[in-house]
Amino acid sequence: MSTSCIIGAPSAPSPVQHPAEGDDGAETISTTADRGDLRDTNVLAYAHDLSDSRRRPIAAQLLDDLWRNREGVLSTQVLTEFYAAVTRKFDPAMPRREARALVDAYAAWPVVQVDPTLIVAASALDEQHTLSFWDALIIEAARRAGANRLVSEDLQHGRRIAGLVISNPFLLSP
After folding, report:
1. 167 near 159, Cβ under 8 Å?
2. Nearest-angstrom CA–CA distance, 53 and 9
3. CATH code (residue 55)
4. Residue 136: domain span
5. For residues 19 and 60, is the Cβ–Cβ distance under 8 A?
6. CA-to-CA distance for 73 and 77, rounded, in angstroms?
């Protein structure tokens, strides 16, 4: 199976033709709305990592559920980190053209833009909760999207931060 297969996306037409809120393309989130869960970079990356036989099916199922339920939310940070991870950290690296196509497909979901207001809010959260700035940035993006849960392996499972519950789906699986 090609690494560029869009996990969970409808087989035809392409997911790029199925934006989350159905007008002419990807929706950007600039205010709070109830959008479900925000997926961290590692969920997207593991879904396409052919070398990780344990986490890949878990991540693929999570993404499949989001395509089906149309409850996925991402951020520009997640899409940027995803591209960098799959083209530089995978062994073998995903071809850049395939990675760009995946970013384009995932942009069909609502995408929270990282802007100066989000950066300032994340810096305050970073200070208040003693987080890494990058973790605080994704938490703030999830808050802006109106998410109740951040799905990531990078933070403590079950922890509540700024109204979000952190969920590590890889911790719960054998």
Report:
1. no
2. 20
3. 3.40.50.1010
4. 33-167
5. no
6. 12
SS3 readout for 24-55:
CCCCEECCCCCCCEEECHHHHHHHCCCCCCCH
In a domain, 7, yes or no: no
List, for residues 140-163, the tens digit of each pLDDT value: 999 999 999 999 998 889 999 988
The structural domain count of the chain equals 1
Report whether 156 contacts 166 (CB < 8 A). yes
pTM of the model: 0.79
Question: Is there a domain that residue 144 lies in?
Answer: yes
Residue 19 belongs to a domain: no
| 23-69 confidence digits (pLDDT tens) | 334 433 333 334 578 889 999 999 999 999 999 999 999 988 888 88
| Rounded distance between C-alpha atoms, residue 139 and residue 153, angstroms | 13
Q: How many CA atoms lie within 13 A of 170 on its CB side?
A: 22
Please report whether residue 174 resides in a domain. no
Structure tokens at 83: 């591209």
Please report, for residues 24, 87, 126, the alpha-carbon distance to residue 144 in angstroms, rounded to integers and kept in the order given. Answer: 23, 28, 16
Are 150 and 138 in contact by the 8 Å Cβ rule? The answer is yes
